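Feature request, filed as a ticket because there's no other form

It would be nice if the structure record came with a short human-readable summary line next to the tokens. Right now we just get the raw output. Example of a typical job, pasted below so the devs can see what we mean:
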Amino acid sequence: MTLPELHKFVKKEQIKGSQNIHFYFLDLFQRYSNPLTTFILTLIGFSVAIHKKRGGIGVNLVYGFGLTTLFILFQKISITFTTNSNLNPLIAILLPNIIFGLFAYYLFRKAEH
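Raw output as currently delivered:
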């Protein structure tokens, strides 16, 4: 579905009183948060890549992949909490972005020195 179609569909399901509406809200919120997620992961990648270490560029590459994998894992865990409990879908989508956004800001500030 396109974004306007998804909005219309969610409104119809809310009117019907659908039980599984949180799945559609998850999809809707993910579509809006993807640009923010991309920016956060790019900022982390930049902050990690700018440091020169003795081990060469491979150490920074592994560090960046590890952080990205950790972000995706945390995002999937938070989505699982939403589907299996009553966690708000907006919180589930924004929580990894907030935590890793703060971490990206810390890495960026540290990279300036």
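Something like this underneath would help us a lot:
Residues 42 and 104 are 9 Å apart (CA to CA).
The mean pLDDT is 85.
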